[in-house]
C-alpha cells in the first residue's frame, strides 16, 4: 500500500494491531485458524464486525499481493463478517446540515453537498432527486441533458 501511495493514518491505525497480534509470524505459517482466533479475540474485546472487516481486509490484501508477486503459493481463508444492521442510524436534520453548509467557505457551498446529504438522509437513488449533477454533467432524472458539463462547457 505504501508503494501505491495508499498509506494514510487510517490504514496505519488498522495495520498496527495486526502487527501487534501477528508479530514476527512468517506469512507462510499463518493459518485460517490463526485468523479465526484473531477475529474472536477482537469480538471479545468489543470491536464491531465493520472494524474487524477493515483490519482483516488489509490482511487479505497483503496475502493477495504476496500471491500475485509469487512470494506465497497459497493464502489462508479470511472470512468477511456481515455488517448488516450496523448502518448509521443518526442523520443530520435539514436545518443542521444547512447551518453547517452556511459556515463553509463559499467555494464549498455547492450542489453536490446538498445531493450527498439528501441521499444519505433519504437513502434514495440519485435519480429520485430530479435535476442534478453527476460526475460533472447535468442530468434530468436518469438522462444526460445536452452534454452540459458543470463548468458550462459542452
User: What's the structural domain tally?
Assistant: 2
Strand order of the largest sheet: 1-2-3
Question: What is the H/E string?
Answer: HHHHHEEE
Which ranges are low-confidence, i.e. pLDDT below 50, for 5 or more consecutive residues?
131-135, 146-154
- Molecular shape: elongated
Fraction of residues in helix: 40-55%
Characterize the biggest β-sheet.
Answer: 3 strands, antiparallel
Summarize the structure in words.
The protein is mainly alpha-helical. It has two domains: 9-68, no CATH class; 94-149, no CATH class. It is 44% helix and 10% strand. Helix 1 (9-22) crosses helix 3 (49-68). The longest helix has 20 residues, at 49-68. It is elongated and about 55 Å long. Mean pLDDT is 75; it is low at 131-135 and 146-154.
